[in-house]
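Customer escalation, tier 2.

The customer says the design service returned an amino acid string that "doesn't look like it belongs to this structure." They asked us to rerun it and document both sides in this ticket. The original structure tokens are below, unchanged.
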């Protein structure tokens, strides 16, 4: 089916007094408005919160993708999830993406965790860069449920000035944004690739923080990228979307690579030398 023609049709008919449903189910995402137009590659897109008949064009660029808002869009309130077709379905999971800009507009980059479709609606944990009042050092966590009376509920907020800079002196792009879900804990971190020579640890002050979600949000879903508030005629650039399942291990419910490395180093340091030779 020609999705570009479908999208144009949605725009043309949006104001007609005819009940038209442009609803498409794609993997673990559901679109309640015109779906993003996917141009080749191995990405799946879905609408988290619709805005009339607006859409984004998701273009596979090999090492990443772009999300472009057609000039026919009416506003900037469309929010979209983008995942690789190979993204795992799991409870404990992680996602990282590099945002290449631009940061001189309302474009909002981020990630989704545990995104899934159930009974015709979408639920996802959203990790997003703050765009309110252009306060870019802020990163927020929301619970998104398209079937709820309140579509977005904020459960976390952090100011990551060490990672991305101050409000008046932001660090250069690109920025790397990562998040993980382990049980009821959501960890977030973000940093400028131009300023850091290596990936910082989870929980590094000023680079990351943790928050909690209710038990009903500890469910299986898919991780991916997020993009929202792209103005008509503009586009956001992303690269190196990396998603993974965090495996169970050693009775703790998951296996944390950072924690395991530190544990083994500590054991080695405390172990009597006579047993090490």
């Amino acid at each position: 089916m020609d999705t570009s023609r479908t999208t144009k049709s949605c725009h043309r008919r949006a104001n007609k007094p005819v009940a038209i449903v442009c609803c498409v189910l794609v993997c673990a995402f559901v679109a309640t408005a015109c779906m993003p137009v996917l141009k080749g590659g191995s990405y799946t897109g879905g609408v988290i919160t619709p805005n009339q008949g607006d859409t984004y064009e998701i273009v596979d660029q090999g090492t990443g993708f772009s999300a472009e808002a057609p000039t026919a869009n009416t506003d900037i309130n469309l929010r979209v999830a983008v995942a690789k077709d190979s993204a795992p379905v799991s409870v404990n999971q992680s996602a990282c993406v590099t945002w290449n800009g631009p940061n001189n507009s309302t474009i909002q980059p981020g990630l989704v965790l545990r995104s899934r479709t159930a009974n015709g609606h979408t639920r996802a944990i959203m990790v997003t860069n703050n765009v309110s009042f252009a306060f870019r050092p802020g990163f927020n966590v929301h619970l998104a449920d398209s079937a709820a009376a309140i579509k977005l509920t904020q459960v976390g907020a952090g100011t990551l000035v060490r990672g991305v800079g101050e409000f008046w002196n932001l660090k250069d792009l690109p920025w790397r944004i990562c998040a993980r879900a382990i049980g009821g804990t959501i960890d977030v971190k973000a940093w400028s690739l131009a300023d850091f020579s290596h990936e910082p640890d989870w929980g590094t002050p000023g680079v990351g923080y943790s928050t909690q979600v209710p038990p009903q949000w500890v469910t299986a879903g898919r991780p991916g990228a997020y993009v929202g508030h792209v103005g008509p005629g503009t586009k956001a650039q992303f690269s190196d979307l990396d998603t993974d399942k965090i495996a169970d291990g050693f009775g703790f419910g998951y296996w944390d690579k950072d924690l395991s490395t530190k544990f083994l180093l500590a054991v080695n340091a405390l172990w009597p030398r006579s047993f090490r030779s």
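Tier 2 assessment: The sequence is consistent with the input. The helical segments are 3-13, 161-164, 257-270, 273-276. The first strand starts at residue 24 and ends at 26. Sent an explanation to the customer and offered a walkthrough call.
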